[in-house]
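Incident review: delayed structure delivery

Summary: a single-chain prediction request sat in the queue longer than the usual turnaround. Root cause was a stuck worker, restarted by the on-call engineer. No data loss occurred. The affected request and its eventual output are reproduced below so the record is complete for anyone auditing the incident later.

Affected input:
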Amino acid sequence: MDPFARLEAVAALARLELEESEKERLAGQFDGILQFFESIREVPLEGVEPLTHVAGIADVFREDEERPSLPRERLLSNAPDPRGEFFGVPPVLEG
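Output delivered after worker restart:
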């Protein structure tokens, strides 16, 4: 496919309006990017296991364990507008 046609197709999908000078400048760059991706397709991948993370990090989350929470009174003591047992917030909908 013509580099200009490829660029115009992607620009149309992205709803971009390009001027002719921009098309001339970007068409070569865009074609180079697509050629690079084509070269990646030629890399032999037989026997290569897929990676989920390049650093080999294992599950780093701690185990869930039950523990007591802070008392409600202490939590609400810093609230600017405590309302009974709840945090007071301004209304979202008027009506």
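Verification: The radius of gyration is 28 Å.
Action items: add queue-age alerting; document worker restart procedure.
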